[in-house]
Design goal:
Helix content is 17%, strand content 42%. It is of the alpha+beta class and 449 residues long. The protein has 4 domains: 159 residues, Immunoglobulin-like (Sandwich), CATH 2.60.40.10; 93 residues, Immunoglobulins (Immunoglobulin-like, Sandwich), CATH 2.60.40.10; 97 residues, Immunoglobulin-like; 77 residues, no CATH class. Strands 3, 6, 7, 8, 11, 12 and 13 form a 7-stranded mixed beta sheet that branches. Strands 25, 28, 30, 31 and 32 form a 5-stranded mixed beta sheet that branches.
Length: 449
């Protein structure tokens, strides 16, 4: 742990030293006077300022001057054009009394030095209400005891930016990526706030939360961690930067590299004599290659339809039953899909659901049925078979109905006779006897004379 702290401290110290050296080299200069002393110098930090129209820009600087120039009488800010900074290009003048700025002359009263005491060697200045025409270079001029005066050679540059800068790396479906949105931070009194949003196809804007925010002296950077999907291809992503009532925005169209599953569209069952239509399709970005068709079956080839998105075969025969394979190439990757096609005969003619599949046996066909008789045509033979079948079925139904009816009738009569009184008469030559026979409910016979 201690070793890591030492390494981190050394790294930070090295970065600070490197920054100081670079800043000194890029933004500091000296003017050599006749006495050989390098006492005139100025430093801008940073040497370039990015400003937003309608807001302010802060110029941060320090300067030195020789002892012989004291006291300082006047200071100026001069607008430079084409690399030249003429004295008549002054946009700010300040008269100094006892090292304090007591009189200031500006065109719009929008330029102000933050430190009126010049003995502190601070020339930091704020410019308000920045306009597009303010994009230029500016120099600082000091006038002391004659002839001790100079216009400092290093200048500060103001760059106008009216929208954020977005950086989007190459995107691939399912792979996380960092999107950045950087906005100027030229004015401390109005810190920016960044909002991310995305609008996919057919949907409304959706706000996103950024993951990392980095604030520098003159820049505000927001980083969004995004996991792209195929739906995000051609979507619009943007960031809005608000400075109080002022808002600037930027947006970009996303390009997502993706590929979906290869599919073959079409009916897997085709009637003999009809047309087979298949479509090989895949959604991808960038687009895949043209499809190549292959056939696994009894036919030798698929005629002239082997390199098209749509495959069509007219007048389909049983030899066309088999497996059809479509292949495409996407970014050096081979994609393929297959479909099994069954060819069936016309069921309205034969009433036989006959199909041809790879390696499958065939049922009795229409031609076989036509050759089975020499006296009638194929259609007449079929019609005769249908009529005989209907007659046999009708007669069978009548016979079964009659049997059922007889059984039911016999049972009904038998049950009625159990409760009915039967009368039996017997006669001989001498006497006439009448016998009455009854059956009780239990079926026992009782005879009365």
């Amino acid at each position: 742990m201690f070793k890591m702290q030492i390494i981190s401290s050394c790294t930070i110290l090295s970065m600070l030293v490197f920054n100081i050296l670079c800043t000194g080299i890029s933004s500091r200069s000296s003017v050599i006077q006749g006495d050989g002393k390098e006492d005139w110098s100025i430093t801008f930090n940073p040497p370039e300022i990015t400003a937003v129209p309608g807001l302010c820009a802060l110029i941060s600087c320090t300067f030195t001057y020789p002892e012989a120039a004291k006291p300082i009488n006047n200071v100026q800010w001069i607008e430079c054009k084409n690399g030249k900074c003429p004295n008549q290009g002054s946009i700010f003048k300040g008269k100094v009394s006892t090292q304090q700025l007591e009189e200031k002359e500006t065109e719009t009263e929008r330029i102000k030095m933050l430190e009126p005491d010049l003995t502190k060697n601070n020339c930091s200045t704020i410019m308000k209400d920045i306009k597009a025409e303010d994009e230029n270079e500016y120099a600082f001029r000091v006038e002391g005891q004659k002839p001790q005066k100079t216009t400092y050679n290093p200048t500060v540059k103001i760059i106008i930016q009216d929208e954020p800068i977005m950086d989007i790396p190459p995107l691939r479906e399912g792979v996380e990526a960092n999107l950045t949105c950087s906005a100027p931070f030229p004015c401390p009194e109005t810190p920016p706030e960044i909002t991310w949003w995305i609008k996919t196809r057919g949907e409304n804007n959706t706000n996103l939360e950024d993951d990392i925010t980095l604030i520098t002296r003159n820049l505000y950077i927001s980083t969004l961690l995004l996991t792209p999907t195929s739906k995000m291809h051609n979507a619009t992503v943007g960031c809005d930067v608000s400075y109080g009532d002022k808002t600037i925005s930027a947006s970009r169209t996303l390009e997502v590299t993706y590929v979906q599953t290869l599919r073959i569209l079409g009916d897997g069952t085709v009637m003999e004599g009809d047309t087979l239509r298949l479509t090989c399709t895949v959604e991808s970005h960038p687009p895949s290659s043209d499809p190549v068709w292959r056939f696994i079956g009894t036919a030798d080839k698929i005629r002239n339809y082997t390199s098209a998105e749509n495959l069509m075969i007219t007048n389909v025969r049983k030899e066309h039953a088999g497996i059809y394979v479509c292949e495409m190439t996407y970014m050096m990757e081979t994609l393929n899909a297959s479909i099994t096609i069954n060819v069936i005969r016309d069921t309205n003619e034969s009433k036989i659901n006959e199909s041809f599949t790879p390696g499958g046996g065939n049922l009795l066909g229409k031609d076989d049925l036509l050759n089975s008789t020499n006296t009638t045509s194929g259609k007449e033979a079929i019609q005769m078979q249908v009529n005989i079948g209907m007659i046999i079925g009708f007669l069978s139904g009548i016979s079964v109905s009659a049997v059922i009816f007889s059984v039911v009738l016999c049972c009904h009569e038998s049950w009625q006779s159990r409760d009915k009184m039967h009368e039996v008469m017997a006669t001989d030559t001498d006497t006439e006897v009448i016998l009455e026979v009854f059956y009780d409910q239990q079926g026992h016979q009782k005879v009365y004379y």
